[in-house]
């Protein structure tokens, strides 16, 4: 063994050091409080501890009607004074009415002035001057906090949009307006609030059922482990049981959908379509429609037919794959520690994701407060120009543009660092992709080295190294970091290009240029195919690196041509094995999912009292199903790597040896029977 791809290894280490430096610079300049806390017109954070706004956690808009202005789309900032308050208004009121009655109704004035600028307490000041200087809002309306900002408290009564059961309100300048004007100012906020309500209910369901979700995932882990252990002894029987088990589960799903479809027959409203009822936040409404269950039944029937046809046409190939799986199960039985290596990969990827996310947030919040002139008059030539709030009142802007204010706009800067924030974000994303692909490559090379040490042992298990997994991990880190980084770099470049194409597609979605759409679609398809091909080549290249210790390019070339010389075997053994393992994942996830369904819907009499009462039973159910699939995928990915490694070693063994005394085969006796005696004839 010797170090491979040293130049790439050095570049990789330099990039990691640079990535750490980028994170440090971002942490120095960034301030995540800009994301956590809303910012008022003076650039101060709402709710920040040890400040005057510590108890004022919500942002209040003086005139939310101005938020419907096109200026909002240009500057991403509502052109009205924004103030930190302790709570949102809970009533309708106008400054004109409050000022007129402040002498005999001081409580109304005391309530209203908490939404005025700090320190303002002069009800004798003329209304025109107060509104011009924006000392107080012209009106307040019942609001509720959302994302720490006060938005109108919309509700629907008999199909009519209302605010506090009113359809009209006074705007404080002598006009009576409809609440739909508020709706336009807070466009789409009602749907967002409905989504927030759903989110709260989902959070409540998680809080109640998290214990049972963990139990479901633990059951999935036990089932996956038992599955892999039993494969060593009864691979054929277990796989056919699992295959027919999947068919049975889907068959039960078809029957259940038909039963629900037939049960809803004649019930009023069940014959409506999904289009008729539109979007509903209560998803149980859709389960009361016959059309929903009919769609589920058709989908399951199609899946059932596809699986049955594949089993019919691939039955002989499945028998061959099962024989190789038995050998893989035997290899894992000797090296049980490999089953838990995915935890190491998961931890490495979690660290990469965390570092990337934190760095991205700090980069996004880098910069100093930038203030701009917000003018009520559209003809003001100083509008949207930067300004200094400390010297703004001494300039001519207030004279030329009455009512203009110097308010906080966004965070930014003119330094070299701030000009290249976007480039830094792009570099952050690229290095993140590189590190994630390196963590995956390290795991694949480590597992391949461990299983290769099993295959090339003359006497199994006597000649297998004492700690094959740790030895393989050490070799990969010590000698082949450069090669693994090289393969990860190629994949990261392609993935970054795909991300950029997706970004461009999203930005150009509103254009009508058909040629541009067609070109982007073709590019996205081509780079998707390229990424899949590179993942396949890299995976087998890492196996060859683990076996022979050569550099990445040589290993990739030898692996590719070796597979091309055995392309039929690749199709018969490797892909059929992947299909069978996928069926195993589906069975584990489906079996645990069915058990969770009966539990959370309180259909198991023994545990009916233990099952929690939920808003949406599908929340923990989907979590258990997806989590079970991921748990099974973690264990089965080790198994798939084992089969791929053994298959590549098997092909290499057939080409290099002929079974003679001088060149004996390293394969076990069971592998001799996989492809028959013809495959074992001496090479000429």
UniProtKB/TrEMBL annotation:
Transmembrane segments: 7-28, 210-230, 237-255, 293-314, 334-358, 431-456, 477-501, 579-600, 621-641
Record InterPro entries: Choline_transptr-like
Keyword match Metal-binding: no
Membrane topology: Multi-pass membrane protein
GO cellular component terms attached to this protein's record: plasma membrane
Keyword Plastid listed: no
Entry keywords, A to Z: Antiport, Cell membrane, Glycoprotein, Membrane, Transmembrane, Transmembrane helix, Transport
GO molecular function: antiporter activity
Catalyzed chemical reaction(s): choline(out) + n H(+)(in) = choline(in) + n H(+)(out)
Source organism, top-level taxon: Eukaryota
Pfam families: Choline_transpo (PF04515)
Localization terms from the record: Cell membrane
Role summary: Choline transporter.
UniProt record similarity statement: Belongs to the CTL (choline transporter-like) family.
PANTHER family linked to this entry: CHOLINE TRANSPORTER-LIKE (SLC FAMILY 44), CHOLINE TRANSPORTER-LIKE PROTEIN 5
Identification of the protein by name: Choline transporter-like protein
Gene designation: Slc44a5
